[in-house]
Amino acid sequence: MEDKPSEVVLFGSWYSPYTSRVALALKLKGIPFKYVEENLSNKSELLLKYNPTHKKVPVLLHNGMPICESLIILEYIDEVWNHAPKLLPEDPYQRARVRFWANYTDQKIMPASYPILLLKGEEKQKAIEDMEEMQRVLEEGIKQDFPEQFSFFNGNTMGLLDIVMGVNSYNYKAFHEVTNSEIIGPKNPKIFMWVNAMKEHPLMKDTLPPHDKVVAMLKSMIAPTPDV
Amino acid sequence: MAEDKNNVVLLDFWPSSYGMRVKIALQEKGVSYECRQEDFDAKSSLLLEMNPIHKTIPVLIHNDKPICESLNIVEYIDEVWSHKTTSLLPSDPYKRSQARFWGNYIDKNVYSKGKKVWNGKVMEEKEESQKQFIECLKILEEELGDKPYFGGDEFGYVDVALVPFTSWFYTYETLGNLSIEEFVPKLVSWTKRCMEKESVAKSLPHPHKIYGFALEYREKHGHD
């Protein structure tokens, strides 16, 4: 039976934070959707059809048309379903700053977790220090750009930056446990408070994978599984 | 009401394709601005203050507030001066998402692959760099299809994102020893069509000037 064209379908992977961002945004907006779990070592024909350029998740399918790249998908969702909660601010300058910090997270912070996971000794320590500096830059920058809105809790709704930051940091305890580091902590008090508040949001719990599953996944990335 | 030119300042570096994007967008919207050239060996205190995170150009300073990253800036210009001329981004959300996708693709691929062609240092890698660069241009040509512009009938966001790199085509061809027109003739026709627009013609340096810059850069950075 063919999917109805107006149906929203999300192709993703359970451990991909980029996928979780989109799932969270759809839930925040109250948009019903069908989820398709992709096996990234054996990608489906549909995924390759809908994202031939990058062959990656997430892909959002709406009215039979695919949208790729998580930040682009989030903006699409906000524009098509432009009811509350709005993911981006109305003011063009504020929007530019949200986009700036979302890009900073994607270009700098997201890739920086791999060296911490995969390297050892001094190189690992350097990678940890680099990441801590980036977190500090992020904290200072967001405090400066959004002084009254830093923490989207206390009844305030989550916006694009909360989604990006919250998803990325949700399982920070799993990351700390596996890498024996403390990236998110009292050293960056505002971020620490913000991340912990977002962890309590019911939709976050509903969307993000649990601690033990993430620990197992991270461990498998360090030590390849033996051939069975 | 006449706009105060000093309200809009662009920190730029003239060979930068990213800076050219912003100039084209400002020209398209008819916005007066002051352009200040940065020296990469001696970045101004204004640049370091306005973009302390990345310390790169372009930076648009509007009413003393900085906006960084060229495609971000182009969207900002489109939103702020939305009353002036047609939009650079389409109004339909799906088409907007596609425009942003291709802007993102151009950002991730054209500069880095192009640089390997004109500044590649290892002979063995040269052929591979050329292949990858041409492949990237072919993908973009396929997206263009038979449309006059990436935006369709109207010059738009993706055209703005890509056309500055065409000022580098002569450099890619001469230093990379390849013929771009041979591989992507439609894209080259598109380039000529874009150059007929005043905003593009005024914003792109002459390809020979870019070539001169590339030669100096290679000499400075120890190329064989």
From TrEMBL, chain A:
Places the protein is found: Cytoplasm, Cytosol
EC number in record: 2.5.1.18
Reaction catalysis annotation: RX + glutathione = an S-substituted glutathione + a halide anion + H(+)
Keyword Transit peptide: no
Keywords on record: Cytoplasm, Transferase
Signal sequence coordinates: none
Family per record: Belongs to the GST superfamily.
Protein name as it appears in the record: Glutathione S-transferase
Native source species: Stylosanthes scabra
From TrEMBL, chain B:
Coiled-coil regions listed: none
Domain (GST N-terminal) ranges: 6-85
Class in the EC hierarchy, top level: transferase
Source organism superkingdom: Eukaryota
Listed SUPFAM superfamilies: GST C-terminal domain-like, Thioredoxin-like
Residues covered by the GST C-terminal domain: 92-213
Family, per entry: Belongs to the GST superfamily.
Protein name from the UniProt record: glutathione transferase
